[in-house]
Amino acid sequence: MATKDKHPDIIFLGQPNCGKSALFNAIAGLKVETSNFPGTTVKHTHSEVNVAGKVFNIIDLPGTYSLNPSDEIEKVALSHLFFEEPDLIINVVDASILGRSLELTQELIELGYPMVIALNMMDLAEKKGIKTDIQKLEKLLGVPVIPTVAIHGRGIKELLVTALQTLEERRPISPLKWTRDVEDKVEEFQRAIPENFLVVGNRRFAAIKMLEVGKRFFNQTLKDMSPDLKKARDKVRDDLENMHGVPAYEVIAAERHHLAAKIFEESSEVVRIRKISWLERVDDIIMHPFLGYLILLAVFLAFFFIIFQVGNPLEELLLNPISGLRIFLSGQLGTGILFYLLDGLLQGIGGGLAIVLPYFLPLLFLMSFLEDIGYLARTSFLMDTFMHRIGLHGKSVSPFILGFGCNVPAIISTRILESRRDKVITTLLIPFIPCTARTTIILALVAFYLGPVWALGFYVFNIILLGVLGKIISFFYKGPSPGLILEIPSLKIPSLKNIWKKTYFQLKAFAKFAWPVLIVGSVVLGIMQFFHLDRVINVILSPLVERALGLPQELGVTLVFGFLRKELSLIMMLQALGVDYHNLMSVITKEQLIVFTVFVSFFIPCLSTVAIIWREVGKKIAFLSMGLNIVVAIILSILIRIFLTLS
Amino acid sequence: MIRLTDAPIDRRLKIVRIGGGHRIHRKLLSLGFHKDDIIELDSRSILRGPVLVRGLTSDTSVALGRGIARNILVEIVGDKR
């Protein structure tokens, strides 16, 4: 944010999965997605709110376990926190794992900005038998603490009132003290920092961070800036290591760890011996070394069939009136430009409504459901061993699964991966995952005309393809991969409100960005058809479309539009062939239908996907990805064509 | 002292040493897994897959890849409750 307005900035910060986004949503309205998967807020979201007549900028930062970043998502959070000095921090803390959460809280207190703690998920903590004395916790931390249950909107008002007060008072907060010998060493180094040295937060915070940091480039920078300071830092580091027999960063982390445990013990009591809840029993089955995989398989089969069972009748229901309207139009208008224009418009609007939405909506809903209950993180655990076979590890599973929704957020979410190699390989593979747009094509063409078993076969084939490609890419791209370290959040009872919000949020994004493209694309094709411009493109592409793939020449132009959005290929296919949905099979054969679906699915990542790959991993990988997709699509389509004609 | 990958499922374990690179070590520290902490092995996946570990101090469950878990040394301190 280059231009900072005069409204105070309030930052929401907390560990992943602490309900921070839910809290932010409760305050800001419908702005960010919340989920039960660590690391869903990958970039910050901000919003303006009005509290008691005062306007604030509230900013939701991605969750971070500590102020020492280990992946790109955490870096986003920290660079914002360090460079855009906020007026107030709201530290969202999961009350059900208070002990651990207080480690980040301590770091924020070290930073010294005005702060309020939202002690969230109080309901869950109560269920676990944890009883926290709020006043005592406030006293121990020196920061106001407000209990909240974000998903039910409890405590929100009190939180805002306290935030307002804290903001006005600008009450300074003082750091919590560690054991004497460590504290002395920190002070010793703090004194060595020159007066004019630019620091974030305060001098003590800067001293601690310089002692903790592990980045080689930082050490070099420090040496270049002030060799004396680096010498002083190295001495204190060595002293700490010699005193405790572990690296300095571990000495400091252990101080926070022990202090957190102490504060937790003094402020909270665990009132009853925890019995195993039924959710934990379910969890044991889901994560079972054998049953877990059966359930995983069943979940994805069910996923697929539910979408088809809901989508198929809905599609039929919506298509009929649109077909009727089209026949009526052609009867009224003949073949003038007006017909082509209106027909394009109708195909665009109707296609989005009748062909895309019936499958898109249940898919979004089910995805949100799996995410909300916490199943996504569990699939990472279950799939880790298989991911190793293709040179990746379990953390790549969640970007892959998100890819079934849309490739764009899937590629953004590869930021959770720590190594560049894993990120690049995952990014190259994601465009081969059938996103909603492609699922729509598969369901609307393959499942609708050939039956759901064919569509399922297509998916199985797709997953095998993914494995083979992964194996090939990792063969050429070797490098260190740190392996899986992933928090598995506790299973949650799904909140219908939460799921619906998330579905609605994504649906809105579709209506706002994708649908207009569908409509404009269809209208442009209508105009092109009137002036016979589409024929030029078709002729240019005919060696590929007609010769190599054996498809009707008219489909050439739909591929060009398919680059904009994949659904466009489907909707324009009907328009280009001049038939409505029910009569499609009268103009092309079953084999052609399959070849077309295969080719459209794989031939190129859509424009937005290419753009996001470019932004996330660079131009070279973006071009590599396009090339890879085109080559794979052509080879596969030709092979399948040969196979189908032989059999 | 045994490797976490060889530890029994039904016992309480104490972390003796966290090996591997400092990046992995730091990540585990930030997730609340420290030397001397008491943990339990909750599940072991098939085909040399990852392990699921629950830290009793921090009350956090994490999935750890086999390569990482192998470098964590633990000692058996008692039975699970």
What is this entry, summarized?
The complex is a heterodimer of chains A (about 650) and B (about 80). With about 650 residues, chain A is α/β, with parallel strands linked by helices.
Characterize the structure shown:
The complex is a heterodimer of chains A (647) and B (81). By secondary structure, chain A is an alpha/beta fold. Chain A contains 27 helices and nine strands. In chain A, the strands form two sheets. Chain A has a six-stranded mixed sheet with strand order 2-3-1-4-5-7, sandwiched between helices. In chain A, helix 3 (98-111) packs across helix 11, helix 7 packs antiparallel against helix 10 and helix 14 packs antiparallel against helix 24. The radius of gyration of chain A is 28 Å and the shape is elongated. Residues 30-40 of chain A have low confidence and may be disordered. Chain B is of the alpha+beta class and 81 residues long. Chain B has a single domain, classed as Ferrous iron transport protein A (FeoA) (SH3 type barrels), CATH 2.30.30.90. Chain B contains two helices and six strands. In chain B, a hairpin with a 6-residue loop joins strand 3 (38-44) and strand 4. The two termini of chain B are 21 Å apart. Chain A binds chain B through residues 65-66, 68, 70, 96-97, 99-100, 103, 214, 246-247, 249-250, 253-254, 257, 261, 273, 284, 287-290, 292-293, 377, 380-382, 384-385, 388, 393-394, 418, 482-490, and chain B through 21-32, 34-35, 42-50, 52, 55, 57-68, 81.
Number of helices of chain A: 27
Q: Assign the structural class of chain A, choosing from mainly alpha, mainly beta, alpha/beta, alpha+beta, or little secondary structure.
A: alpha/beta
Structural class of chain B: alpha+beta
Distance between the first and last residues' Cα of chain A: 61 Å
The CATH superfamily of chain B turns out to be Ferrous iron transport protein A (FeoA)
Strand content of chain A: 5-15%
Question: Mean pLDDT score of chain B, rounded?
Answer: 85
Largest interface: A-B, 45 and 38 residues
Largest sheet geometry of chain B? 6 strands, antiparallel
Tell how many strands the DSSP assignment of chain A holds. Answer: 9
Report the total helices of chain B.
2
What would you report as the Rg of chain B, rounded to the nearest angstrom?
11 Å
Q: Which regions of chain A have little confidence, pLDDT < 50, spanning 5+ residues?
A: 30-40
> Strands of the largest sheet of chain B, in order across it?
1-6-2-3-4-5
Low-pLDDT windows of residues of chain B: none
Overall tally of domains of chain B? 1
Percent in helix of chain B: 10-25%
CATH architecture of chain B: Roll
